[in-house]
Amino acid sequence: MTGVTEREIETPCGWCGNAIVQPARGRKKRYCERSCRQRAYELRTAERRHQGDVDAGRIRTVPAQRVVERTVQPRRPVTVAQWETALADLAEQLHAGRYPWERHRLRVALAAVLDALGHPPPDSWIVHGTPLTARPDAAPEPPRPAPPAVLDDALAAAVSAVAACAGPDGIDTTLTRLQALTGQPVPLLRDALHALADADLAVLRRHAEPVDDVDALSEHARFQLHVQRGDAAAAV
Fold it and tell me: What pTM, to 2 d.p., does this model score?
């Protein structure tokens, strides 16, 4: 009768997996070095502590959701192609009706660009009573002529319409809005505002500052109008 016995000569380390030469007698080795034994012990104790915290409710089994805040910083165009894209986008916004009250500021900025390109803007671009193409040494504009006598009746009607729109409490408006409310053309409305202001029957303010020159107002510039009560047309 023959007996067969087996003895493990080499086994893998329980931590690093390297081969361990087992002794012929005695207790089998599980780790090749003391450092592997220590790391395995730390892992077992850490797992027990983690499971204890989970059971006690100190650790969430489902993590919280990640919250990300993304901030997009606008970048200035630096190439001709980027400027073309930016200006085309601005044109689309203007066609869509954006910036109705601040278009005079865009005219000033674009006038500086055209001047730098050697193409001054037309004299029709007037801001604050001065053509954007005017230079400090340019000749002053001729005084604004008084409205002809044939427009007296129309001017009186425009004055009455403006006073009626303003009401006793005044109105925050634009020349374009006054045109829609009164049905009067913008040039005649300018004459009516001039007549009321010259007769000290109306006060125009923009950004809390008095408006000294009605012609400096663009059609879409917002201003505040206060008219004295009474028959403004007769007083003028």
Answer: 0.37
